[in-house]
Design a protein that fits this description.
- The chain has about 375 residues and is mainly alpha-helical.
- It has one domain: Amino acid/polyamine transporter I (Up-down Bundle), CATH 1.20.1740.10.
- The chain contains 14 helices and no strands.
- Helix 3 runs antiparallel to helix 4.
- It is globular, with a radius of gyration of 20 Å.
- About 45% of the residues are buried.
């Protein structure tokens, strides 16, 4: 079995959670209280993370798919395992399309989107085919630069005077209800609840004793960066502009101007987006092929090209960026994909593990 170090795991968690999150202004429906939505979602999402870690600690050498088969039975377990494999591939597809659309909107407006997404898919296929350890080392290499440059952006907002903290006022103008509603319906699942995908990777950690500590620290580091970027974008653009902006962070960064010294910070932001989207798309992709390999009990590299081709082709289904966003909202909220896959099924699995564990002790 391929092994990853605690540092590689921590850096992957940080980059995965940040991922494509800065593309969107989390909790903006709560207007100037969006920063409270991020904090609330992170804290409630932490309860999910504790549950995921508790599941893993009871089966430290097994992945999510293997645990499902063991506790749900061979038929129901494999059926639910297939659902997760499809959902992992679906999430990867969404990030691939995000990558293509972002590139078209920003720096390569005349380049065919099929070529842009193909480049990303080829990079992901190559990374996965080289092995899990190699891919996790990529995160180890990128994480320092990503965090550093996000912090640089925050500092530049205040140096150039475009940040206006009074745009966060009045606090709790409409009470606590909009904050809880936004947190429970959206931010708890995206991005914080997506930590569930690491149930496919935690079993590969070389030192299981470091599992919880490493994961929790990385979770809160990523949460802090997300909170910082979400809040600074809000105080630069204001809730009204951030709500209607296609990519709020990119629009905010374009306001940073120190003539003759610092200009065109939007190029830096695009590179940060690329790093995050590549990591997130590839990790979802890797989780899908790992799940397939465990369902068929074979090497995961056999499925890399097949799953990669399916992800690439399905990324063309939405005819445009707006349709892509609407489909994501419908699947996540109307069909409750996120609550079911990230909350209900793991919760049911955890309860079954507790019941069976007590039965074994009683026996």
């Amino acid at each position: 079995m391929e092994k990853i170090s605690k540092y590689q795991l921590g850096t992957m968690i940080i980059l995965f959670l940040i991922g494509s999150t800065p593309l969107f202004e989390l909790g903006i429906k709560a207007k100037q209280d969006a920063w409270l939505v991020v904090i609330t979602g992170m804290l409630i999402g932490f309860l999910l993370v504790l549950m995921f870690l508790a599941i893993q600690r009871r089966e430290p050498d097994h992945t999510l798919v293997q645990i499902l088969i063991q506790y749900f039975g061979p038929y129901a377990g494999k059926f639910v395992g297939w659902i997760y494999v499809v959902s992992f591939a679906y999430e990867s597809m969404r990030n691939v399309r995000d990558f293509g659309e972002l590139t078209i909107m920003t720096i390569l407006s005349r380049t065919p989107i099929f070529l842009i997404m193909l480049i990303l898919m080829l990079l992901s296929i190559y990374a996965i085919y080289k092995g899990m350890e190699v891919f996790f080392r990529v995160a180890e290499f990128l994480v320092g630069g990503v965090i550093f440059f996000y912090l640089v952006l925050v500092v530049m907002y205040f140096i150039t005077g475009v940040a206006q903290p009074d745009k966060l006022l009045p606090v709790l103008e409409n009470g606590i209800r909009p904050i809880l509603q936004e947190s429970l319906s959206r931010s708890i699942w995206f991005p914080f609840g997506q930590m569930m995908v690491f149930l496919m990777f935690w079993s590969h950690l070389d030192d299981k004793k470091k599992l919880s500590g490493t994961s929790i620290r990385a979770y809160f580091i990523a949460g802090f960066v997300i909170f910082l970027m979400n809040t600074t974008t809000l105080i630069v653009l204001g809730p009204q502009v951030a709500d209607i902006s296609t990519v709020p962070l990119l629009q905010a960064v374009q306001l940073i101007q120190i003539p003759g010294i610092f200009e065109r910070f939007d190029v830096l932001v695009i590179l940060l987006f690329y790093s995050g989207i590549f990591i997130k798309a590839t990790l979802w992709f890797l989780a899908a092929v790992l799940g397939l390999a465990q369902l068929f009990q074979t090497d995961y590299r056999r499925f890399v090209f097949l799953v990669g081709a399916l992800i690439y082709l399905t990324a063309f289904i939405p005819p445009n960026w707006q349709s892509h966003l609407e489909i994501g909202t419908i699947v996540a909220e109307k069909f409750m994909l996120n609550p079911i896959l990230l909350g209900i099924i793991p919760g049911l699995l955890f309860v079954i593990m507790l019941i069976r564990g007590r039965g074994k002790r009683a026996g």
